[in-house]
Amino acid sequence: MRSGWKILITAQAFAVSGGDARRELEAAGCELLTSKSWGPLTESELIAQAQDADAVIAATDPYISNIFESLANLKLVARCGVGIDSVDLAAASAAGVLVTNVPFAMTDAVADYCMGLLLTMVRRIHEGYNCMQQGGWAEFPGVELRDKTLGLIGFGKIGQAVADRALGFGLRVTAYDPAITSASMPEWVTQRYPNVQFQSLDAVLSQSHFVSVHAPNNPSTKHLINADSLGKMRPDGYLINTSRGALIDEAALIDCLTEGQIAGAAIDVYEREPLPPQHPLRATPRLLLTPHNAFNSREAAVRMSWGCAHPILDAIQHKTPEFLCNRDVLRSPALRCPVRT
Q1: Where in the chain is the domain with CATH 3.40.50.720?
Q2: Which of 76, 93, 225, 243 lies 20 to 30 Å from 312, alpha-carbon distance?
Q3: How far apart are CA 238 and CA 43, in angstroms?
Q4: 229, 256 in Cβ contact below 8 A?
Q5: What's the CA gap between 100 and 324, in Å, rounded?
């Protein structure tokens, strides 16, 4: 069946790594349109380029009510990633637009990167690299991992994958997740992670040598790491964030590191992306910065590309996509692409 769907690509990962997925979509009769610049696009850029689009393979562009009202032909937003905080799901459902994500494609990539940041930071590898690049030669004494405590804030798929790696390094692992408590311990946790201790957020912050954030971005987690929580960390503690920038109060982190309240931090995500060139984070001491690349392995990009193509192919055939984020849209009289439930 030839679909005739037009698909705008704003996600660079799909454009770079989605060759086979692109060909599958084209074989189904889709016309793929490449964005003039990679996302996140502004509202005006998105509206201008997606006027005729049936679907968008989306970066973290702003999919809000104004967008859905302006793009009357849009039927599906396929987020090229797990995070959907850039999408107003209620507005999408009200407009009859399907929203999908790719929840498991990046798990190993982010977990690997998290451990890479941890090792780079505490063994001061980046400082040694900078020294050598500048023609120098110096010692940079670091910290070993064995018998230290890693605290995980959030114990979803990525938190679990980090725990698997950390235990292999001889780290003790403790975790905070409001869905997992001693009073309601899921059986799978008991079976798979008998060596992970679940505690309160305050206990994880105060007892851990290294704290790694893996919580979702929602109103309840905004600035979960703030001046108060940073003040609970050990003075020799390190903070890592590979989840979402909004989880950390950046002004509080800058103050904390400038004053030397904790030993250091490594972050890959920011409240505003791309991070402006003159942003004060770039000049903050004891801070390792990377440009939102934790997800960005070749293997993950291929998995994400297929994870965007499959829901579009499903919708074309009027099938309900597997990873539909707003299932209430199926009951909406405004549904723009009727699918079988």
Answers
A1: 6-105+297-331, 107-289
A2: 243
A3: 37
A4: no
A5: 5
For residue 97 the two structure tokens come to 């637009």
Say which residue the tokens 């001046």 belong to. Answer: 227
**Cα–Cα separations (whole angstroms), residue 230 to 142, 175, 176, 224:** 22, 16, 15, 10
CA 90: distance to chain centroid? 21
Among 108, 90, 91, 76, smallest CA distance to 323 is for 76
CA 1 to chain centre: 35
List the beta bridge partners of residue 340: 319
**Residue 9, phi then psi, degrees to nearest 5:** -110, 115
pLDDT value, residue 182: 76
pLDDT of residue 2: 58
In angstroms, the CA 59 to CA 11 distance is 4
For the chain, residues with pLDDT lower than 70 are 1-2, 341
- Evaluate whether 26 touches 49 at the Cβ level (below 8 Å): no
What one-letter code names the amino acid at 30? C
CATH code of 6-105+297-331, in short, is 3.40.50.720
Three-state DSSP state, 107: helix
Instruction: Compute the distance between CA of residue 85 and CA of residue 40 in angstroms, rounded to an integer.
Output: 12
- For residue 151, the cross-strand partners are 174, 211
Is residue 9 within 8 Å of residue 30, measured between CB atoms?
Answer: no
Q: Are 35 and 41 in contact (CB under 8 A)?
A: yes
pLDDT reported for residue 271: 95
Q: What count of Cα atoms within 13 Å lies in the side-chain half-sphere of residue 141?
A: 0
| pLDDT tens column, 36-55 | 999 999 999 999 999 999 99
- The fold for domain 107-289 equals Rossmann fold (3.40.50)
Alpha-carbon distance 167 to 146, whole Å? 9
